[in-house]
Amino acid sequence: MRTAFYISDGTAITAEVFGHALLTMFPAQFEHITIPFVESCDMAEQVKQRINDRYKTTGQRPLVFQTFVDDQLRQIINSSNAVCYDFLNSFVEPIQRELGIAPMAKTHRTHSMHEKTYDFRIDAVNYALANDDGANMKNFDHADIILVGVSRSGKTPTSLYLALQYGIKAANYPFVEEDMEALKLAPELLRNKSKLFGLTITAQRLSQIRQQRRPDSRYASLRQCQLELNEVESLYRREQIPFLNSTALSIEEISAKIIASTGLKRHKY
Amino acid sequence: MRTAFYISDGTAITAEVFGHALLTMFPAQFEHITIPFVESCDMAEQVKQRINDRYKTTGQRPLVFQTFVDDQLRQIINSSNAVCYDFLNSFVEPIQRELGIAPMAKTHRTHSMHEKTYDFRIDAVNYALANDDGANMKNFDHADIILVGVSRSGKTPTSLYLALQYGIKAANYPFVEEDMEALKLAPELLRNKSKLFGLTITAQRLSQIRQQRRPDSRYASLRQCQLELNEVESLYRREQIPFLNSTALSIEEISAKIIASTGLKRHKY
Question: Which of A52, A103, A122, B180 lies 20 to 30 Å from B218, alpha-carbon distance?
Fold first, then answer.
């Protein structure tokens, strides 16, 4: 099996996203090794040794995805027995030419707390936690978005992802069984109606998910799931609440679709 | 101000990471526009029009970061009045040559739920939520890692990030004021000692953070913060619990450092 290294003087998150996007295109297995915070020549030399050892053991040159800005560190890694892919270095020059300005020399830190938007994200995470599952409805006035839907339709992980990734304050509110008889929007939801976004899901998938949580309960039965989904979807239509079906979507996809369709302002790029 | 577009037939998350890593190297402001889920030629033509309009209004060619795999869609975007940067396309060929295998033709979907590891991540998020702030200590036996530290030292956002990003089951446990008199590890922590990881922070920063939460309280006082941190750090040393100081680190950096120093197994790459 070929080894893929992701190496950086920072978190190596960018190197991972970059390498992963490329390697998933190939029908092959890789052993993945991430080495973050390689911040000195000594450390870079150790990493180089590790790469060379891997080459000796496997007989195949490792693939190295790296995102150093420091030239000296990059060159040490480049001198190892590996194939090195360096997208920052490849693209910086064309962008420099286009913009007509030089890049800053300082070490690259995309994922550090020196980003202006860092505090927004922590605030948003705290907000999402404090306003999960319909808690503190009076806080809904401060939400950027309020996700609504039946229990286990994906509201909570989506709220957290919107907060962590984009600094968006997402509250969420579950429509529970007791609401179903005469489903309507509570006053706190009504006065924030423009912020509501509905999630739905197929009854089959919902039943599967609930089954894991409370096996053989009425809550998990296909009949109950279908009933709740019917009620909630007709509420969405009646009240003209935008909604999407989360069944075949990842949290990342749900979040990206919500942002694209609502025009929600992100606090992080 | 120059406009940067991030465009993809998927979430465009990879395009954003890619473009953002590059643009943050330049001392300039950009207007950022993300357009995800461009899945048909019609949609690609509309996006092209939007790019060209932007060129007309601003007089400057927008920068376009794109991650299409579909050749036809890519070419439509490439024919706009923009400078297009396409790292997938630039690197696929060299990797193909090195591996000696062809990439798959299907659309690229790094952030979809078809990743094998998707369910791990949702389980891990649910685990982190259910085991936040010392809840359900009997579940600690199922944790991959247990973050410990004083209140507001960064445990909760880090647990959530480890779960969402890496599928790691992270519980967390706060040492509260009442524990300080004779600080020791509870039985549930003792029997999972190899999973413990401590967070600490400077008293100044902790006091600032607590001040926002409960202004002018004893809880937020510098004196109380210092006292708790002294106790907790000496516990870490006495019990040989690895720990790090989160003061100047982002959640991403804390998480990457924890994984690198513990060798924690990730469920997502």
Answer: A122
pTM of the model: 0.86
Distance CA A72, CA A266 (A): 36
- Sequential DSSP letters for A3-35: EEEEE-SS--HHHHHHHHHHHTTSS--EEEEEE
Instruction: Spell out the residues 6+ positions from residue B50 whose beta carbon is closer than 8 angstroms to its own.
Output: B35
**A35 to B160: CB separation less than 8 angstroms, yes or no:** no
Asked if B3 and B62 count as a contact pair (C-beta separation under 8 A), the reply is yes
Nearest one of B97, B228, B76, B99 to B152, comparing CA atoms: B228
Cβ atoms of B198 and B149 within 8 Å: the answer is: yes
Interface test with A, best of B2, B95, B123 (most A CBs within 10 A): B95
Contacts of A73 (CB under 8 A, 6+ apart): A9, A38, A39, A40, A41, A44
Partner-chain residue, chosen from B96, B110, B164, that has the shortest CB–CB distance to A24: B110
What is the chain A residue with the closest CA to B253? A11
Which ipTM score applies to this complex? 0.86
The two three-digit tokens of residue B269, written as one number: 């790459």
**Residues of chain B found within 8 Å of residue A172, distances taken between Cβ atoms:** none
Q: Number of Cβ pairs closer than 8 Å across A and B? A: 197
Q: What is the pLDDT of residues B119-157, one digit of tens each?
A: 788 889 989 998 988 888 989 999 999 999 999 999 999
- For A81-221, where are the alpha helices, taking DSSP H only? 87-99, 118-130, 155-166, 187-190, 203-213
Residue B85: CA atoms inside 13 Å, Cβ hemisphere, count?
28
Alpha-carbon distance of A93 to A81, in angstroms, equals 26
> Per the CB < 8 Å rule, is A22 touching B99?
no
Identify the sign of the CA torsion B178, B181, B187, B190. Answer: positive
Structural domains of chain A, with CATH: 2-99 (3.40.50), 118-262 (3.40.50)
B166-224: pLDDT as tens digits? 999 999 999 988 888 889 999 999 999 999 999 999 999 999 999 988 999 999 999 99
Q: How far is B178 from chain A (nearest CA, A)?
A: 23
Nearest Cα of chain A lies from the Cα of B133 at a distance, in angstroms, of 12
User: Hey, which residues does B198 pair with through a beta bridge?
Assistant: B148, B243
Put simply, the answer to whether A111 touches B2 (Cβ < 8 Å) is no
